[in-house]
Amino acid sequence: IVSIAVFASGSGSNFQAIQEAIERGEINAKIELVVTDKPGAYVVERAKVKNIPVAALSPKNFDSKVAYEQAILSKLQECEVKWIVLAGYMRLIGNTLLDPYASKIINIHPSLLPSFPGKDAIGQAMDHRVKVTGVTVHYVDAGMDTGPIIAQRAVTVVDGDREATEQAIHAIEHELYKEALQKTLT
Ligand code: GAR
After folding, report:
1. pLDDT at 86
2. Where is the active site (predicted)?
3. Ligand 1 centroid vs 76 CA: distance in angstroms?
């Protein structure tokens, strides 16, 4: 069983999908810790329901990004976490975490990268009137949504309907992340 930590800043629907796939025996992993930079995020409630410990650390309470990530690193080391799974964690990962977890950090992004990196990828796609967007799972490097791609799936945009498009993307995310984690976590 592979020990993982899930990092999230928001609702946590991907966290929940991963945890439920683990509960069904579909991913050979254990979520040792949820890490969030947003103590009020809904993912904290979802983690409580699943009895998974949460490290809620506000970057503003630290003198530097290095100090913030060192605090996270010591939590990860306490739980002997082997892989970091980003699920809506809206910050760049710095060298303090990249170095000890080289090639062991995975992210999911709601577009067909390299299109629409960064924030609000779904809004960017709607603004460009693209007809097809999608979901990408990739390894994390120092760039913004730039690491080697593990898996991608296309999603047809529902014309002018952001909410419907977003729902379709989330449904694909939950499936694609599971498949990608099944293949990569060792
Ligand atoms: C997901 O759509 C994820 O792909 C996106 O944040 C959302 C989190 O949803 N991540 C990024 O945009 C990263 N650049 P969730 O909190 O319900 O899992």
Report:
1. 98
2. 109 (proton donor)
3. 22
Residues with CB under 6 A from ligand 1: 8, 10-14, 87-88, 108-110, 121, 145, 173
H-helix or E-strand spanning residue 45: helix 42-49
pLDDT band at 65 (very low <50, low <70, confident <90, very high): very high
Does the annotation flag 107 for ligand binding? yes
Which residue has the least CA distance to atom 6 on ligand 1?
A: 88
Does the annotation list 88 as a binding residue? no
Taking the C-alpha atoms of residue 33 and residue 20, their distance in angstroms, rounded to an integer, is 15
Chain Cα centroid distance, residue 140: 10
The whole-number pLDDT of residue 4 equals 98
Catalytic residue numbers read 109
pLDDT in the model for residue 64: 98
